[in-house]
Write a structure and sequence with these properties.
The protein is of the alpha/beta class. It has helices at 25-40, 72-80, 91-101, 132-140, 155-161, 166-169, 179-218, and strands at 11-18, 49-56, 60-64, 117-123, 144-150, 170-173.
Length: 219
């Protein structure tokens, strides 16, 4: 598997993975493989793409933070042994947990340096708690949300989680085996998001530099 994103891509990406009982151990292995494919497509290192992972069910658990691992190899090794949590489906709580524990500077978030902040939610069912209000909190912080629904995932809730346009931020597959089939699409979309954000930042800093030059000339 080759890296699809350009070497210059810079982003903080946190995956929020449903580990509830409805998934089952066999299907959870498909989620591991899916995560492996996605992570493997990025140039992962502290200066470029940082990856974090939360698993949620009735409660949420940090698997690793954006600054836990220094290399892609260490992340892939962890994912291959990712323990299955089991429990209910509290997606709203999971979103809150991710916001408060992962998208913060102490966990490795570079939001203050205008690095794109991206969250990818993977779920197979309907949440037992409210998701929209929790998702809105992340969006207000400038975090771009993607929702990937498997099998019986609730379409309306996926739309409540994800950013608009939903055609670019919501993915649904009929079963766990179909995850690999959409992995390249998702990677391509994430890369485009990251590269667009980078372009906007460059334009912004260029604009600031031009303003500074103008001020110097006026003075």
């Amino acid at each position: 598997m080759y890296t699809i994103c350009t070497q210059e891509a810079v982003a903080d990406i946190v995956f929020l993975v449903d580990g509830s009982w409805s998934i089952g151990a066999e299907n959870f292995e498909q989620i591991r493989r899916f995560l492996h494919t996605l992570v493997n497509s990025f140039d992962v290192n502290p200066d470029h793409v940082r990856i974090g992972l939360v698993q949620y069910s009735t409660n949420s658990r940090t698997e690793f933070l954006l600054n836990t691992f220094q290399t892609k190899r260490d992340i892939l090794q962890y994912i291959s042994k990712l323990p299955y949590l089991g429990g209910g489906t509290h997606t709203g709580e999971g979103l809150d947990f991710m916001l408060n524990n992962h998208f913060v500077a102490s966990a490795g978030s570079r939001a203050a340096q205008n690095v794109p902040q991206i969250a990818v939610v993977i779920t197979d069912g309907k949440s037992q708690d409210n998701v929209e209000s929790h998702a809105q909190k992340l969006k207000r912080k400038g975090i771009v949300l993607y929702a990937i629904g498997i099998k019986d995932a609730d379409e309306d809730q996926l739309k409540e989680i994800a950013n608009e346009p939903h055609s670019q931020h919501v993915y649904s597959v009929s079963d766990f085996a179909a995850l690999q089939g959409i992995s390249q699409n998702i990677v391509q979309t994430l890369c485009t998001t990251v590269e667009e954000a980078k372009r906007q930042l460059l334009q912004l800093s260029q604009g600031k530099m031009d303003q500074t030059k103008q001020l110097v000339v006026i003075q």
